[in-house]
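Reproducibility note. Readers wishing to regenerate the assembly model reported in the main text can use the exact inputs given here. Chain order matters: entities are listed in the order in which they were concatenated for prediction.
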Amino acid sequence: MSEDFFLKYIAPYTGIIAKLCRAYTNNQEDFEDYYQEVCLQIWKNHSNFKNQSKWSTWVYKITLNVCMCMLRKEKSTYTGFLPEPNEVQNTAFKNENVNLLYDAIKKLNEVDKAVILLYLEEKSYKEIAQIMGTNFNTIGVRINRIKERLKILLNETNH
Amino acid sequence: MKQTIEDTWKAGSIELENDNLPAKRNYHKMNSKLSIDKLLKATKLDNYALLVIIVLVGITLFFLKELIVAAYCILLLSILYVSNRKRIRSLESIKIENDNYTYLKSFHENMQATIRFYTKLMTFGFPLFVIPVLPWLILGKTEVLKILSENSWSKTALTILIVYAALSTCGFLAYRLSVKIGYSRLISKIEDNLEALKQLNTLPNG
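Running the prediction on these inputs yields the following structure tokens for the assembly.
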């Protein structure tokens, strides 16, 4: 069951899940925990999927709900001799600009992070509002503000 | 030419396609790390244990011919069992496939309700269970009745009240401390997210 289910329902979305989990974590161990938990929750709850939305929307909802309710391990293992975890620079990508973008996104609060990630994944405002459970009319304004903030954060890093 | 945020994101997405993602796929053998799932599992386990305890306490005290104590213990444990079943139903009603706001709100409400329930249990229920049962079991019925008859009613009542207050305080503090250690970080994270989602809802258009 497990392998078949993975290949049919999860494999096409591993990229989406990985991108979101990377944005919410600061190290490989946390990333793997979040990623595995999302896959587990999709597997556990797939029978509740009612075809009322797209499967991808359903996957986004579960991924974000997991990311917003998981606790990162870093604080308990932080020794004080290393830089603060949110200051550790991302090196997951070969493209330096991508690493810098992820670092900037990580500095946003968790809700802004979710909004901009969904926007970058080319979700419509309506779909973003549906996933977040918020007002559709405010999404556009918020996205513009987040993009401005990201530009400032990226400029600060570049200088 | 300077890359836009969208272009950079796309470049990252292409790179991620070749990324080595965790290969573990035996999800049916995995345990969830989500607090709500852990809480649900622990509450279910508690209730199975309670059923066993009710039966064992009933049988043991019956053979010891302590029928009053048996009835009292079974009553208290049964109340706890029924309350726990309510908690399980409530925890099961939280659907992870709900939208973000609904999920976080129901998660938060359930956590708070669970904390309220166990605070009351540890503050009021725990001394209620300990005060009458323990002296009875440790000292024996005759010794307890002897102490009660030797002391005045007011002195006995005062002693019980002081012990109750002490146990109540200990129960309250111990539980609150365990909540602080176990859940405070998660609760404040969820509260922050709920607040941010509320702000997102009320953002002026323009």
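We highlight two features of this model. The mean pLDDT of chain A is 84. Chain A has two domains: 1-78, 89-159.
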